[in-house]
Design goal:
342 residues; alpha/beta; five-stranded parallel β-sheet; two-stranded antiparallel sheet; 9 strands; 12% strand
Amino acid sequence: MKKFLDFALVILFFACLASNFLPAQVHQALGFIFVALIVVHNVFNRNFYRAGLNRRRIFNQAMIFLFAVGILAILISGAALADYFPAQNLNWRAIHLGSAIFSTILLLIHLLKHIRGKKLYAAASLSFILAVAAIFGLPYVDRWFHKVEINRFELLRGEKLAVEGKILIVYFSRVGNTDFPEEVDAVSGASLMIEDKKIIGNAQMIAEIVQSIIGGEIFPIQTEKIYPADYSETTKVAKQEFSSGELPELKNLPAVANYDKIILIYPLWWSDLPKPVENFLRISDFKGKIYPIVTHGGGGLGESIKTLKNSTRAEIFEPLDIYSSDIQSSRKEIVNWLEGFR
């Protein structure tokens, strides 16, 4: 019975890690079953905690305690993500993902402590592979398979700031420059989110959040050409633009000279400034400061700020970068950044 329970716990744990491929209700149910079986597992092995302590047992119990902390963090963050209680201003998704990686590594260490003989080397090698997969694979899966459904009303309500001067919020997004089919996957890696079947771009959503905090006018950078709906094809087109130095033609440019502050929001393309944004900077006559916000999938600011500074004579304010999967919980971070230039 104990061996069957141990086997079931391992299978359940890794099934829970596949959350992006499962319906939310199934993922939650598996999580609750896993926690319940963890309790049963500890009841069956209660004599372990009663035995005398030595160096090995102290280490094992420390690993078990840390694993319990990780599971508790997964439970609390999961409940917040499922709206079982007010989410406050914490980045619960990052906490949930980080706790899953932390718990995976501890689980593998715990399993290794119970293996002896020749099997230990094979188990150690497999554990190392699984640990590396957890550290690098889970964020990748989260980025490319996490379907981003949002509640715009919730994202746009909250703290307001009074900022002097006339404000223009400029953003570049695939939405508005791509003809998407009706049934398109809105995943963070493709810079898309969705509300009531309506596609919203990551940069567009950030622009709306900024406007809800400080006001101002919003302007989307739009190109004459249409980018492919398939994200991988768009990356190929972008790479061709970088290779050739092409600056895509734009339409309906705003009179940027009439504004004191220009907040520029764009995604990181090939670790750099998208060519349409570069062209916007080169052909616009800026009088006010530019405040950049960069969305990315792990590349941070990349080389984009260097390119931005080389494309305009305008003064550039300290930039803000936001990881694509964190946009839904970024309002507080944006508020803190905006407070810097009031």
